[in-house]
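Recall that a protein's primary structure is simply its ordered list of amino acids. Everything else, from secondary elements to tertiary packing, is in principle encoded there. The following example makes that idea concrete.
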Amino acid sequence: MDDLSADNRREVKTAESVDVQASDQMDLFSDLLLPKNKKSEYSNTIDIYDAIPKYVWSKTREHEDLKSATITRTCTIRGRKLTVKLKPAIIDKGESVVLIYPGQREEIVEDALRKIAVNGQGRYVNGKAGVEFSIYSLLKELERMGHSYSFEEVRESLFVCRGSVLECYSEDGESVINSNLFGLLALASKKDVQNKQSSKCYVQFNHLVNESIMGLTFRQYNYQVGMRIRSPLARFVYKRMAQYWIQASEANPYEPSLISMLEQTPRGASDNIRANLRAMRNALKVLEEHEVISRYVEEKVLQGKQKIIDVRFKIYPHKKFVEETIDANQSKKSLLKKTS
């Protein structure tokens, strides 16, 4: 486990040292109300956790000074304003120790692990929601979705998620969460890893993921579409729409403002309104290409006669997204009926 610093290395366990159990609740997480030939395309979004701006999208995610490494952001979820703090993982690269923030790679890897859990490998890992997998199966799932990472890249990504710390606070200062992206990481021994298909590894998901699974606040969405969207901003907007826009219809548009929407994302809203608008337009174009939305209309908010200070959007869903929203609503009703 040379990838981690000495302090973090002690927190990565061997697969034999954790308590792993099957769980009825994890079975509910994998209970997709879909035809058998469609189930491979779908997974679940997670309430709150997937809407928190917890990634760094810049190409350079490494940092050197621990004292200045905390990134602070704000977001509003269900009308509740949160302050979000992200601390990088401490990773030992042999000749140097670097700080690495979770980024696009970590998001993709975590979504793939969640899909593996939905496929029937969800487990209670030390008493909380998690997943059983092998590095080989994770690599194959990523490859199936068009993301070809190396063994070492995926392994480092797991360590980054285990070492990164996410803190969220409400306006009154009450702590909502203070934990690593992965609550626990248990890897097979080096000897077992040589037998790629059978080596067992375990991840315990973040506390917020556990809470969503326990509270049944997760929601079915088209995982295949999400994984094929290369733009991180477009993917973020798509997941947010899938989780919260439960009344989507072709006649009733989604109506975010440019600044408010960007402030919720890891990108943030800059002082350059034209750059903000260009980024949002590009993301919406990607969502059109993936048949998530059919079109959008802009209404500029002016200060004086010419200065643009914001843009209001009317985003119309594609009929496929509407159909998937209806299916997700039916799936949720069925799930709640089973547990009532």
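Residues 136 and 197 are 6 Å apart (CA to CA). The chain has two domains: 6-216, 229-339.
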